[in-house]
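Sorry to interrupt, but I need a hand with the structure work. Could you write out one complete protein record for me, on any chain you like? Could you add the entry underneath, on a fresh line?
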Amino acid sequence: MTDAVDFLRAGAAALQRGDRAGAERRVVRALALVPGHGEGWNILGVLAVSGGDPARGEARFRRASACAPDNPNYPRSQAECLKRQGRADRAAALLAGAVRRGVLSPDLACDLGDLRLGTRDVAAAVALYRLALVLAPGHARSLNNLAEALGKADRPEEAVDAFARLAVLRGTAAAWGAAGATLLAAWRQDEARGALRRAVALEPSTAEHWANLGFAGLGRHAVALAEAAFDRALRLSPGMDAARAGRGTLRMLTGRLREGATDYEARLSLPAFMPSRTYSRPMWDGRVQPGKTLLIHADRGYGDAIQFIRYAPLLRARGMRVVFHGPEGLLALFRASDVVDDLSGLDGPPPAHDVQIPIMSLIHRMGSDLDSLPAAVPYLRAPDAAARRWADRLAGVPGLKAGLVWHGSVAFPYHRQRSPGFEAVRPLTGVPGVTAVLLQVAHGRSELERFPPLGPVLDLGMELRDFADTAAAIQALDIVISPCTAVAHLAGALGKPVAVLLDQGAEWRWMHGRTDSPWYPTARLYRQSVFGDWAEPVDRLRRDLAAMSAT
């Protein structure tokens, strides 16, 4: 036995020196003496694989496993050889068998998790990565792959926590940057800011970390931090459109509309902002050409379309023909408001046109700044028949009639931050002399089952078919209460008093620190003082509603 061990040691040393032939010769002599020595077969397997022969390597690792069935490294190596031969399913079966026999290590569990993830069995992959982390809580590869698997399983909060743990474990700029990016995507800006500060401290030359730090600051209206971070990102990478669009957003937030809107055009190269369809005609350059037809298209939020369609009548008054291509739910409202010459829904072709523009680019092409915003309201109105129908429907409602919305569309991740939910606004349903008229549709309505209103309400949420209906109902109300949703924009566009409940990091269109809106003269803004705390702005609004009711 001593001679066999000596031969194995000599073979391993030769392998370390790169003497492949010498290594194989010595290991073969050792196995001639002790055929059941697993490590000898393992070394021969390594030699075969490094020589480009995974099939021969797989056979040798199989012999190693037979000699030492409790060693998890041998089935791992055998599985790797099978993968190299395109037999991933056989590799997965081999490792799964080892797990069932109790031949376990964090690396083996992680390898099997990777194979399951490769076949899109995300649930099995997650379970295996978690098993690896039970065996070794600091197993970085399992933690990293777990985070990616959780992201694919649409479990963002768990994925974020895994990336944050990985950043603490590794401590590198890349790890802190990845954690910051995922925290940012989950709208956990405060934690993201901490992670990204570490990333830029460790590696100040990476533009992406600075850009993400800018977005983390933007999400809490930390204006100085965000602007410095975006500027630094753009100095490091002048062509970085994400950072330029972020800086544009920040500048518009702080009232620098003209320069901000210029930067904000960079968003059009980002996947999240690319139109869902292409338009063959040239992009409008902002020059008014009487007699030419401009197509305004909108395929993102309803609120964007409602806010910026105000530019269409101005262009028509200057001689251009203006047509609209956008969501079906807005067509009846825009038709009744006579804001465009023609319109069509996104399911069909656009009206004929000479030039085209995304609706949110109008603020840039029109050269708007705070002193020249087209803020005259109303610029929208409900169809006459719908207005009469809803006026009759609401005529007998007693007291101050206050429309109430508490949840925005879930199509945008921002809904987690902007939507207070019914429990938070519930005190507004118990104000003496006020009848809450519920305008909430779709998401958020289920909350009514858990939190009954405190006073008289009229629930219209199941009756409103489109924005023409909603506009008609709003015209018959005294005030509308809403977070940052399309309904808030609609009430403002109709010239109706509107109280807007805003989170601490509200969108740029509501500006920074203002209680009024330059876009909507009838709006009053109720902002959070502390992030996530809706109680204080709701209480202020409740007191104002009580005063309105009393007068």
Summary: The first strand starts at residue 293 and ends at 297. The first helix runs from residue 2 to 17.
